[in-house]
Specification:
The complex is a heterodimer of chains A (272) and B (309). Chain A contains 14 helices and no strands. Chain A has 272 residues and is an all-alpha fold. In chain A, helix 5 crosses helix 7 (134-158), helix 8 runs antiparallel to helix 9 (175-186) and helix 10 packs across helix 14. Chain B has 309 residues and is mostly helical. The chains are: A mainly alpha (272), B mainly alpha (309).
Chain lengths: 272, 309
């Protein structure tokens, strides 16, 4: 009897914990599948009846959603690739060279509000005429991707035993070869984790594109935000757009939740 | 999806490494960091220095630059709006740290147990943390709608009158905290779960023999042992709460009036609405000092969790 009670209590707490997440996402889906009449009905209509895909069609038809999606892919893709290219060797250099001060600098960079980089970079891009370009956004997103990649790679390279590299060097490998053929393959999980987290935080970033993005170079989050102000509130398409914006990130979370969990409990910091 | 996917050693990526390289190897590793040094110098360190320089100037875009020394800071101290934004930030931060810590720790205790579908349920639980803040904020905005919002309807079902949510100065900050709690409780959960994974079994066994109940075991064994992890979570949450921007900006833009104008929103408005670059830079510097102090605290907390874990 007591055991059953405990079991019920336990499952009740699981239910309470998971329901806020479930309810918000379900409501998002519900809004996106209802027509405008049902969306503004009171009391609210919970189950779309009949569900309509019109909102999704509208999102693509009425806005430049395709363009913004492409912008997001370019900006995030570019920033993550450049971040890996620069950040992975740096993580190795810091871990092996014991550049602790540089590591602390990276940590501070992770903690500085993203907003505070914007003023100087905004002025810089204005002078160089890059405001409103994809290039400016890619460069600015490096502020997000590089610190997280470097920070995570330091941890992974520190766990790669030095002995293996020493052995390869005795066999005549250069430092670069020891990195390229010994340490790098062993740190592959770290590259995956760093890449995924950098992707998520860069994809989710909003404020850089609000300030630096032009009409044609906006990324998805700021484009969706702008559609709210410009076309008045039309809930269905807005919910559909919001869902589409966050869908890639949620899919990555489901597929790679193990790596994300590992990376976050290790890196422990979000961007912003 | 066993608990082994959670590294028990939270401190592992900390800069203090255990590698065995001898010191004379150091210079050759510099080349690996060189590209990052250049890029970080350009996009991170240059902005820091430029901001510091600018904080001493009086400059509005379109006007001339004039050196004012600490004038911007003196002006800030007299700026009612700035002082109020500090107050809002403090109010928001305290709530947005305490609540996720309590809920996140409770959640970690639950997810530490073995139960069917744990992996799936944990993935669902973690999702809010990953979701694009802007996208979710838009949906929250719809839910907070005073007449048509689903939340006031749900309240009416349980016999509670409609709340003003983000449309009333008295409720706007707690409401924004609600969104923040929704987003970031999972991060606390993950950090504490990492701590729980490394706990020894013996103290519990002997406590059971001594007839301790669940609460006693939590209070006197679990809590002290995972406390270093909770401390790390507290510092991370504090920094993140101070930095909170996207959801506040999208949902209220600091309103109604300036009731939810936090430091970050104030900073944004000064810089990109009023184009008072020098003034905004001074805000960044103050912000930066606060963050640096907290960063030191984090490093300390990390070290501490390392010693105890």
């Amino acid at each position: 009897m007591n055991r059953t009670l405990k079991k019920v209590g336990f499952w009740a707490s699981v239910f309470v914990l998971v329901s806020p997440a479930v309810l918000v996402f379900l409501w998002m889906i519900s809004l996106s599948l209802k027509n405008e009449l049902d969306n503004t009905a009171f009391p609210p209509v919970f189950i779309p009846n009949p569900p309509t895909l019109k909102n999704y069609v509208d999102v693509f038809a009425q806005n430049n959603f395709g363009l913004y999606l492409w912008n997001s892919i370019l900006v995030t893709g570019g920033a993550v690739l450049l971040g890996l290219l620069v950040g992975v060797p740096a993580g190795y250099g810091i871990a092996r060279g014991k550049a602790h001060k540089f590591a602390v600098l990276i940590l501070v960079a992770r903690m500085t509000p993203a907003l505070s980089y914007l003023i100087p970079l905004f002025l810089l891009f204005q002078i160089t005429g890059l405001v409103g370009s994809i290039t400016a956004l890619v460069i600015t997103h490096l502020v997000i991707t590089i610190p997280i990649i470097v920070w995570i790679m330091i941890g992974y390279f520190e766990n790669v035993p030095m002995e293996l590299e020493d052995a390869s060097r005795i066999d005549g490998a250069t430092t670069w070869q020891a990195f390229r053929h010994v340490a790098l393959p062993l740190a592959k999980p770290g590259i995956v984790v760093g890449g995924i987290l950098a992707f998520i935080f860069s994809w989710n970033n909003f404020i850089f594109s609000v300030v630096l993005g032009g009409k044609a170079s906006r990324t998805l989050p700021s484009a969706v935000y702008n559609s709210l102000t410009f076309e008045q509130i039309s809930w269905g398409p807005l919910a559909a757009a919001a869902l589409l914006v966050t869908l890639p990130v949620l899919l990555v979370t489901v597929v790679a939740q193990r790596q994300i969990v590992a990376g976050l409990s290790a890196g422990g910091l979000k961007d912003g | 999806m066993t608990s082994t996917s959670l590294p028990a050693d939270l401190a592992s990526p900390a800069p203090a490494g255990a590698a065995s390289a001898s010191a004379d190897f150091t210079p050759r590793y510099w080349l690996f960091s060189l590209p990052a040094v250049l890029v970080i110098g350009a996009v991170i360190v240059f902005p820091w220095l430029f901001t510091l320089y600018m904080s001493g100037q009086d400059w509005k875009i379109g006007g001339g630059v004039e050196f004012v020394g600490l004038g911007n800071f003196a002006e800030l101290m007299k700026d009612q709006r700035f002082i109020e934004s500090m107050g809002h930030t403090a109010y928001f931060t305290v709530l947005a740290v305490v609540l996720p810590i309590v809920f996140g720790t409770a959640a970690a205790l639950v997810f530490h147990r073995e139960f069917p579908f744990r992996g799936l349920l944990r993935t669902i639980f973690v999702m809010p943390m990953m979701a694009t803040p802007v996208a979710v904020a838009l949906v929250w905005t719809m839910m907070f709608h005073p007449q048509l919002g689903v939340l006031n309807y749900l309240l009416s079902l349980v016999g509670i009158g409609p709340s003003g949510w983000v449309y009333e100065p008295s409720t706007v900050i707690p409401t924004l905290v609600l969104v923040e709690v929704w987003h970031w409780t999972p991060l606390v959960m993950l950090i504490v779960l990492g701590g729980l994974a490394g706990l020894p079994r013996e103290p519990y066994e002997s406590a059971l023999i001594d007839g301790a109940n669940d609460w006693h075991m939590f209070r006197h064994i679990t809590l002290p042992l995972v406390w270093p992890f909770i401390m790390v979570a507290i510092v991370i949450r504090t920094i993140d709460a101070l930095k909170a921007f996207d959801t506040i900006f999208v949902i209220t833009q600091g309103g109604p009036g300036t009731a939810s104008e936090t430091l970050n929103i104030f900073l944004y408005l000064q810089a990109f609405q009023f184009y008072k670059i020098g003034y905004a830079s001074a805000v960044v510097v103050i912000f930066f000092v606060i963050i640096i102090m907290l960063s030191l605290l984090l490093l300390y907390a990390r070290q501490k969790s390392k010693w105890n874990a």
